[in-house]
């Protein structure tokens, strides 16, 4: 009997689906377990298994977001739980990074098959020397997206970028480009998610494969009445940025501003060197 009792306790302690107690500060390191699994587990607080009409919220404030797995989980929740409101506010660099999953989120939540194709082409950009392989990749990605999301919009997911005029002339590329060290940059450097307005997950961990695999990272989980003031502080910062049209905008708006800034940079160069 003691052996069975001990075995049962071991299973409860080790099983990842065991109930988690909230109301304290918890620190987790990826040297002990995968942080991506912990974040996905916490998403379930906003999207419980039952009832499926349960409302909830997930607010993501993120500097670097390249994890396809986390993006797919947000899309799955948004698709299956229409009353769960999801907002993602990413740094401006995610607008142009070839590894960013933010444009992928934008394409899928639009429900537009043409956007699916745009994303499929983008996902195959790394294939440069084999056109047949590239075409197969594009076709497969399109089919997968249509199979999973069926050309239906996901209006309960919104994506915005923190905007600042972070472009300058790049001598190496011979054109304007995003400048991470631009003097006017106000980088959105948070790595946080707020769930249901009462759980805060933050720390050093960017939502990227390099953070998961290469780096030593941490997340801290704050919940419960004693920690609510910390959650509220993050929520206030998020809402202030999200609601200011000068500081945050959707992909199309930020691309329009980028193109306008490109033209200003080109004009500045022409004015500075009229004889060239």
Write the layout of secondary structure elements.
Blueprint: H1 2-14, E1 26-29, H2 35-43, E2 56-62, H3 68-80, E3 84-91, H4 102-110, H5 113-123, H6 131-149, E4 157-162, E5 167-170, E6 175-178, E7 191-195, E8 199-203, H7 209-213, E9 218-223, H8 228-243, E10 248-249, H9 251-272
CATH classification class of the domain at 23-71 and 82-92 and 162-270:
Alpha Beta
Order of helices and strands: HEHEHEHHHEEEEEHEHEH
Task: Quickly give the CATH architecture of the domain at 23-71 and 82-92 and 162-270.
Answer: 2-Layer Sandwich
Which strand-content bin applies to the residues?
15-25%
Give the N-terminus to C-terminus distance in angstroms.
89 Å
Sheet with most strands: 8 strands, mixed
Q: Overall pLDDT, averaged?
A: 88
CATH topology of the domain at 23-71 and 82-92 and 162-270: Endonuclease, Chain A
Radius of gyration: 21 Å
Strand order of the largest sheet: 1-9-8-7-2-3-4-10
Helix content: 40-55%
Q: How many beta-strand runs?
A: 10
How many helical elements? 9
Your description of this structure?
Helices cover 42% and strands 18% of the residues. With 276 residues, it is of the alpha+beta class. It has a domain at 23-71 and 82-92 and 162-270: Endonuclease, Chain A, CATH 3.30.870. Strands 1-9-8-7-2-3-4-10 form an eight-stranded mixed sheet, with helices on both faces. A two-stranded antiparallel ribbon has the order 5-6. Helix 3 links the parallel strand 2 and strand 3 (84-91). The radius of gyration is 21 Å and the shape is globular.
């Amino acid at each position: 009997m003691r052996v069975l009792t001990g075995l049962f306790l071991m299973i409860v302690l080790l099983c990842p689906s065991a109930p988690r107690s909230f109301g304290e500060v918890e620190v987790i390191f990826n040297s002990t377990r995968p942080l991506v699994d912990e974040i996905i587990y916490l998403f379930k607080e906003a999207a419980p298994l039952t009832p499926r009409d349960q409302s909830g919220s997930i607010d993501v404030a993120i500097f670097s977001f390249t994890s396809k797995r986390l993006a797919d989980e947000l899309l799955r929740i948004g698709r299956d739980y229409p009353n769960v409101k999801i907002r993602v506010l990413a740094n401006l660099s995610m607008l142009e990074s070839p590894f960013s999953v933010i444009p992928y989120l934008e394409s899928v939540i639009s429900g537009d098959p043409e956007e699916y194709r745009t994303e499929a082409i983008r996902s195959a950009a790394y294939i440069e020397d084999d056109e047949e392989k590239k075409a197969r990749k594009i076709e497969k990605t399109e089919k997968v997206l249509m199979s999973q999301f069926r050309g239906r919009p996901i209006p309960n997911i919104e994506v915005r970028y923190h905007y600042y005029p972070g472009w300058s002339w790049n001598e190496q590329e011979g054109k304007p480009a995003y400048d991470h060290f631009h003097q006017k940059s106000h980088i959105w450097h948070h790595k946080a998610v707020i769930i249901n307005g009462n759980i805060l997950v933050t720390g050093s961990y960017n939502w990227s494969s390099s953070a998961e695999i290469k780096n030593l990272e941490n997340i801290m989980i704050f919940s419960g009445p004693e920690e609510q003031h910390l959650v509220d502080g993050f929520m206030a910062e998020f809402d202030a940025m999200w609601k200011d049209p000068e500081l945050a905008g959707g992909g199309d708006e930020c691309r329009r501003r980028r193109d306008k800034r490109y033209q200003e940079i080109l004009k500045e160069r022409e004015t500075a060197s009229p004889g060239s």
